[in-house]
């Protein structure tokens, strides 16, 4: 759903620092979505660790998020399965996330993983069909076309075929939507485990 925001009024109405509930109201989102944005670092905050008033958020950072979301909504979309009943409710997950399999603890680790995937994709041309993306990632062809339709990355169509620039696929594979999904494709898990074991891309990785 699209919303129009009066940023000047937000600044006038709210204090310099706010909490999760105020952020939720400003952004017209659920508490669960707000927590995802804060915990993932997409919206900067201070986590006090308290049970009440846990987060301290700068109103200016919330406004910055709203402006960026207007142009890149897919960047702020929670990963697949995030809204299911078993997510973060104390129930054991069936699998680790790709971020956990690959041991991506820092932004530098994520950059290395992106370089690793780039090596692995060298045999492919600069533009891939949805079928090729499905073959490389292990995600179903219908999942790939749904991602296209939802605007998660750029693509174009030739007849009924979806064609996707390689760089767009690479960027998406290291986005929170994929890295933090608790239902990753097994091929991506295998790649993440391989990276986690060696920790860096090599020429051998592209073989």
Main beta sheet: 3 strands, antiparallel
Instruction: Quote the beta fraction.
Output: 5-15%
Judging from the principal axes of the Cα atoms, what is the shape?
A: globular
Which strands sit side by side, in order, in the main sheet?
Answer: 1-3-2
Q: H/E series, N to C?
A: HEHHEEHHHEHHEEHHH
Q: What kind of oligomer do you see?
A: single chain
Care to count the β-strands? 6
Q: Uncertain runs with pLDDT below 50, 5 residues or more? A: 200-207
Query: How much helix is in the residues?
Result: 40-55%
The assigned structural class equals: mainly alpha
Number of helices: 11
Euclidean distance between termini CA atoms: 44 Å
- The average pLDDT is 84
As a whole number of angstroms, the C-alpha radius of gyration is 19 Å
How would you describe this protein?
The strands form two sheets. A three-stranded antiparallel beta sheet has the order 1-3-2. A three-stranded antiparallel beta sheet has the order 4-6-5. The protein contains eleven helices and six strands. A hairpin with a 7-residue loop joins β2 and β3. The chain is 47% helix and 9% strand. The chain has helices spanning 7-13, 20-27, 31-39, 59-71, 98-101, 107-120, 130-137, 141-149, 166-173, 176-179, 186-198; strands at residues 17-18, 46-47, 55-58, 127-129, 156-158, 161-165. α7 packs across α8 (141-149). The model is unreliable at 200-207 (pLDDT under 50). It is globular. The chain has 207 residues and is mainly alpha-helical.
């Amino acid at each position: 759903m699209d919303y129009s925001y009066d940023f000047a009024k937000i600044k006038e109405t709210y204090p310099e620092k706010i909490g999760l509930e105020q952020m939720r109201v400003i952004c017209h989102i659920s508490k669960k979505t707000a927590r995802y944005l804060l915990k993932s670092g997409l919206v900067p905050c201070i986590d006090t660790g308290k049970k009440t008033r846990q987060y301290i958020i700068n109103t200016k950072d919330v406004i910055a998020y709203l402006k960026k979301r207007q142009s890149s909504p897919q960047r702020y979309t929670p990963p697949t399965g995030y809204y299911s009943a078993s997510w973060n409710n104390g129930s054991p997950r069936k699998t680790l996330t790709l971020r956990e399999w690959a041991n991506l603890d820092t932004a530098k680790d994520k950059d290395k993983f992106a370089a690793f995937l780039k090596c692995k994709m060298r045999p492919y041309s600069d533009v891939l069909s949805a079928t090729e993306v499905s073959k490389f990632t292990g995600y179903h062809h219908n999942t790939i076309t749904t991602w296209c339709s939802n605007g998660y990355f750029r693509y174009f169509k030739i007849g009924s075929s979806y064609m996707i620039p390689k760089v767009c696929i690479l960027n998406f594979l290291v986005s929170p939507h994929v890295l933090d999904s608790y239902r990753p494709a097994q091929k991506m898990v295998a790649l993440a485990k391989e990276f986690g074991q060696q920790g860096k891309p090599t020429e051998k990785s592209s073989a």
